[in-house]
Design brief:
Layout: E1 2-4, E2 9-11, H1 14-17, H2 36-51, E3 72-80, E4 86-92, H3 118-137, H4 140-181, H5 187-254, E5 256-258, E6 264-266, H6 267-271, H7 287-297, E7 301-310, E8 324-325, H8 329-339, E9 361-365, E10 369-374, H9 390-397, E11 404-405, E12 414-420, H10 423-434, E13 439-446, E14 454-458, E15 461-463, E16 471-473, E17 482-490, E18 495-501, H11 508-514, E19 538-546, E20 553-557
Parallel strand pairs: 12-19
Antiparallel strand pairs: 1-2, 2-4, 3-4, 3-7, 5-6, 7-8, 9-10, 10-12, 11-12, 13-18, 13-19, 14-17, 15-16, 17-18, 19-20
Length: about 550
Amino acid sequence: MTVNHHSKITYFQEEQIASIAVPERFTFPFYYEPHPLTKLAAAELQQYLQTQADLDHNFGLSKNQDGMVIGKMFGVLVVQDAQDKLAYLSAFSGKLAGSNDHPKFVPPVFDMLAENSFFLKEIAVINSINAQIKDLESNETYQRLKYDLQASAAQSKQEIDHLRQQLKSNKDNRKKLRDKHRPDLSEQDFELFEADLIKQSLFDKHQLKLLSDKWEQTLSEQRSALSQYDADLDVLRNDRKERSAILQQQLFEQYAFLNKDGKSKSLQDIFSLTPFGKPPAAAGECATPKLLQFAFANGLKPIAMAEFWWGASPKSEIRKHQQFYPACTGKCKPILAHMLEGIPMDENPFLLTPEANSQLEIVYEDDSFVVVNKPEGLRSVPGVDIDDSVYSRLKHSLGETEPLMIHRLDMDTSGLLVVAKTPQAHKHIQRQFLQRNISKRYRALLSKAIDASEGEIDLPLAPDLYNRPRQLVCFETGKKSITRWKLVERFADTTKVDFWPLTGRTHQLRMHAAHQQGLNAPIVGDDLYGTAAKRMCLHAAYLEFTHPKTKEKISFEVPENF
């Protein structure tokens, strides 16, 4: 391949692509099998990344390299020029080695790092404000005043609390004296005695007031001395906040995306009608929007795209070195909806219905519930665009009986699903699920041979808000997720295991299998966290619960078909 570094275009050699048919439709960006042309382009780009030593970016692939480890998503876009010659463009997400300017890669939609850009000028001002805030916060007088105020507040509380305790003890003693001398003294003498006790009480209250007033005056003086510093800090912080908001809005307007008709839309316009209302951080910095922008701006026709991860796996999400991944949904989907408008595209696989021969096997049925063996590829409940599901099929077959869903399985997971036929059964069995009195066992085929024979995985999970339905491992906000597992059979390149989910989080088994701190072996066919195949090899094999009527333990088991 010949690379024109100035135009950012890498042309294919005719003999390399002579036997490869050009796709008739553009890649559906959110679920795809890379086209042979994009595989060829990606292989070339990966070879470049392996040999390019002057990128000065630590991908985490070499133990001896300095700098923070940051893996990157890279993208290739196969294009056709005005003479119908095939070529490809390359891009990376975000920045590479702290820069947007690299010979082989297309520029960003807006280069905020360009010399003398409004962004760098305003960032310089904001950084200056940050420096002023830092200097003021570290000022010795300010720190001493803060310390003195904290110390005085603590001491005042201690002294006042101590006096309150003493006064309470005095009050209790006066009560005892009243009770003791009331029978012994005449009414006149007791009145005199009581008057003396009242004087003592008033004196105690006066002492408390004097102490409280003394400390209030001291604290007030210290707060007053500190307030000028705090006021100056508030002015600086508000100025920084306002400047940052204005700068962010300016950036949103500068990020303007083209489509094939030359129509331009800003980030703000694109995201204004989404649930976010405004663009999320780093929107527009992903590889595919950069690639399409360059293609449209330079009269190139997009043919196919692909994105792959390069580098060490991140700690939170599932990303494997050199593996292809779809474009993200939260940040890219609204942008690409505009950029790809009017371009014939591969069919959205999420709208495909299951094969007609994927029968719903009834494992057990009585007056209270039905247990089915759900085939892979069938939804548990209807989706936004597809009605076909376990629910809709049971609703059809049960006649007037309304199926009441108790739990769900992922669309690509096969196996046992229990559905109630009465509200009473639904409430009873659902309570067992909520109280974790249900015994469940899953069987899975992992994508590589693993050495261990059993164990427990404890990795907290949280939704990836900008890339649903993917999940993240997050030790700060994630919910506790525990899976017990045991080896069933080990093969040369795969491993069959049993999973017992001790919690019930979304994609728990898939994440615990794929994550590097879990088994580091994605389930075969897992198109979200591994590599797509004919099916995802995850099966709900065993289910045990208490019958809502007989109160007896009942269990069901169906073998996997992989």
